[in-house]
Design a protein that fits this description.
237 residues; Cathepsin D, subunit A, domain 1; six-stranded mixed beta barrel; Peptidase_aspartic_dom_sf; signal
Length: 237
């Protein structure tokens, strides 16, 4: 009699376990079906993308064929040449003289002509000066310097009164250096103007003279495609 309840309990537990297993099995099958559906959807999307790419490739091939059919006339491009002038000329734009990016200039009390960089990006003009010595003459500050440069055949010593000092920031050290400023007459083609020059070492640069906006404003414009549009001037002209 005692075995009957035990057997009944065992059968009940077995049935419960079997039912639970069946439920888990059904859940697993459901998850597998869901994954299979998602995979099918992804495959369909991939197929659609593949078809779009193939269509675009065909379109590109058609464009390539059209481009290949375009005939471009053959040309023999020549490198741009810098226009120069060996005789006295004067290019005008309105009432302003047109200058190239480099010109010949003559400086006050100098018989030599100097090559000058015409730079609209510089606010002031500068002059190559080495061996600078400041001294006093008749109670005024003067400066003596050498215009030594590779473009010059010989050293040129210059003495000029100092009108003021300019602070120049050295690009290599960011230190502020005070430089003397002198005023000189400049002759460039038909232009004769007095301008201020900051004395600085330009031996490592291509031109011993730089003319900035302080000289150029109101009297000239610059065409950077040209060089030496004006003949070499002298104050004997």
């Amino acid at each position: 009699m005692k075995l009957l309840p035990i057997i009944s309990l065992s059968l009940l537990l077995s049935a419960c376990a079997s039912q639970q297993y069946e439920q888990q099995h059904q859940q697993t099958l459901g998850q597998l079906d869901q994954l299979s559906s998602q995979q099918s959807a992804l495959l369909e999307q991939c197929q659609a993308i593949s078809e779009q790419l193939e269509s675009q490739q065909q379109h590109f091939e058609q464009l390539d064929e059209k481009i290949d059919g375009i005939v471009i006339p053959s040309t023999n491009p020549q490198k741009p040449t810098v226009k120069t002038c060996t005789s006295q000329t004067s290019y005008k734009l309105g009432n302003k003289t047109v200058l190239g990016e480099a010109e010949w200039v003559s400086l006050e009390r100098q018989t030599n002509a100097f090559q000058a960089r015409i730079d609209t990006g510089a606010s002031t003009s500068s002059l190559n000066a080495t061996d600078i010595v400041q001294f006093e003459r008749d109670g005024k500050n003067w400066v003596r310097f050498n215009m030594r440069h590779d473009t010059l055949d010989k050293d040129i010593l210059v003495e000029r009164p100092v009108i003021r000092s300019a602070e120049v920031i050295q690009s290599s050290t960011n230190q502020v250096d005070k430089r003397p400023v002198v005023s000189m007459l400049v002759k460039l083609g038909p232009i004769t103007e007095k301008t201020e020059f900051t004395l600085t070492d330009r031996k490592h640069l291509s031109y011993p003279v730089l003319l900035g906006r302080s000289f150029l404003k109101d009297i000239s414009v610059v065409d950077v495609s040209k060089k030496f549009t004006q003949a070499k001037p002298t104050f004997k002209d």
